[in-house]
Specification:
This protein has 271 residues and is an alpha/beta fold. The chain has eight helices and seven strands. Helices cover 40% and strands 14% of the residues. The protein binds nicotinamide-adenine-dinucleotide. One of its GO terms (molecular function) is oxidoreductase activity.
Length: 271
Amino acid sequence: EVDELVRAANDGELVVDEDGATGSAARFVNKTVIVTGAASGIGRATTQRIIAEGGRVIAVDLFAERLSELSAAHPEGSIVTVRADVTDPQSVQEIVTAAGEAPIDGLANVAGITDGHRPLHETSDEIWQKVMAVNVDGPFRLTRALIPLMRGRKGGAVVNVASEASMRGNAAGTAYTVSKHAIVGLTRSAAFLYAPDNIRINAVAPGPVATGIEGAFASEFSERRIGPFMRMIPPVADPAAIAASIAWLLSDDSSNVNGVVLPSDGGWSVQ
Ligand code: NAD
């Protein structure tokens, strides 16, 4: 059944329970969720999963063409695409406005970039600022914009995407590691502040996932990132597996979970 759900989610099919639009396969019926980084990898899989469970996604990314493809593959009304750069402060209002009249139930801050595994002494100001702008400033501004709206309706869920690099110093380059530690701080601070408003803020920390993010650095991956410090070679996850963790934290199934950083890494982080 789970395989079928994941397959359906990957294919962008709408899965509805036998007894109607309830149950674990339809947790997002009548819900609107903003997903950044929606054109690729984990963000795309998250978008597909939420739509497959009956939800409506405001899909945000830099790449208009890939957003159009994503939109074309889903039923009308289930997806609104916004071509926006999360580092641009002006984009925040545009993203919120795209939701229309419907209340926004969730936010998945998935957009992220790597630093190409650069050590500190090879990190230029430009790389540092760019990585911080996408991985930290973007989630900060979007969360800040949504908190008053979620407070107004007494509830909401935010999921940030952390990383193995949120927990160790040797899983990525310096700028990326700092940015992913920072997103954990943002998660915990916001979870503490807005728990009384029934707004939950959690993070997912994926291990390696088969997406485009490593790009040109794929060959360096095992040498620089895994080799030096890992006894256990981690499973490389399908983006749908991370999307399932994000969807759980966005859904009411995790209603008593707040402020956690959930490893979604096949156990890699236990060693
Ligand atoms: P990906 O490159 O496949 O997708 C990232 C998406 O974010 C792309 O579509 C890209 O266009 C978009 N994006 C980048 N900068 C943006 C901006 N300024 N504004 C709007 N959109 C922007 O990568 P992915 O692996 O799916 O990464 C998603 C998240 O998961 C990132 O935060 C990443 O750090 C994290 N992560 C990935 C892995 C992995 O192994 N793939 C592991 C741990 C954490």
